[in-house]
Amino acid sequence: MTPVAVTLERHQVVLCLAAIAGGAAVGILAPATAPVVAPAITPVIALLLFATFLGVPFRTLGAALRDTRFAGTVLAVNFLVVPLVVFVLSRAVAADEAALVGVLLVLLTPCVDYVIVFAGLAGGARDKLLAATPLLMVMQILLLPLYLLLMAGPAVVGAFDLRPFVEAFLLLIALPLGAAVLVQLGARRVRAVARIQDAATTAMVPLMMLTLAVVVASQIADVAGRAGALLAVVPVYLAFAAVMVPLGIVAGRVAGLAVPERRAVVFSGVTRNSLVVLPLALALPAGFALTPLVVVTQTLVELVAMVVLVAVVPRLVRHPSSTPPA
């Protein structure tokens, strides 16, 4: 990682919050820009995931995933524990189909991008979490339709057009992942390709900032305009984070994981894939116009929670010889 990339990553939390504030200012002060920047959401997310996947050590991925204790714990937390928690919490908004679908879309899908940085800032095992990224992506793609069917019902799921979901998978997952693998292979033989890899690594934080700014700028006016309806989902998101922290701690302890791995499990269980599922929410029929705003609201709530957890998780999951900070 280049010195510039290290510096940017060290200050990522502040930079991401600044990007959100900037996007909100643009979206509120100049609401006419929203339809102009909205089409950029999918391309910038695809670029962000390309940069994320470039950081995955594919050559050593098999060895990393052979740590079945860590991988199994992350999968169990995200695809067994989380769905149970989400089902219970989502009943609070079950009467509103658009809100329910938004809550389910975002809370049932574990994050694969900035969770790695936040976990690292809290002393978590970011390398193992990074290696598990493709596995988390594949599992959520396979299981999300099933969980939506079980929790939202066949009538709601039947209103979906599958084509946008397939397109989103190809554009946001398959294409960036395939390109990242090719670049990694080429970087070992061609110097110009190696420069692309270095540039993408350096661009990771700026891409995250751009993505957040674009998403917020394009959606914040609508979020503000529907604030009354969206307030109902905020307690759900806060409760989810509050519940998943202790459950993640317990899961890591039961699995006998080391402290950095336990911290990574906590962040993986709490942090959701809002940026990746947003294009799916935007592709829903007109009757689900509130759904993308529900997803964006989760992003805003979660980033505040992440700032708190970076400080709190090291206090909750400590090395045996350490003492609580004053």
From TrEMBL:
Q: What is its main location?
A: membrane
Localization per record: Cell membrane
Q: What organism does this protein naturally occur in?
A: Microbacterium aurantiacum
Which InterPro entries does the entry mention? Arsenical-R_Acr3, BilAc:Na_symport/Acr3, Na+/solute_symporter_sf
- Name the family: Belongs to the arsenical resistance-3 (ACR3) (TC 2.A.59) family.
The question of whether ATP-binding is a record keyword is answered with: no
Membrane topology term? Multi-pass membrane protein
Q: Which PANTHER family match?
A: ARSENICAL-RESISTANCE PROTEIN 3, ARSENITE EFFLUX TRANSPORTER
According to the lineage, what is the superkingdom? Bacteria
Q: Which parts of the chain span the membrane according to its record?
A: 12-30, 36-58, 70-93, 99-122, 129-148, 168-187, 199-221, 227-252
Write down what this protein is called. Bile acid:sodium symporter
**Which key words are in the record?**
Cell membrane, Membrane, Transmembrane, Transmembrane helix, Transport
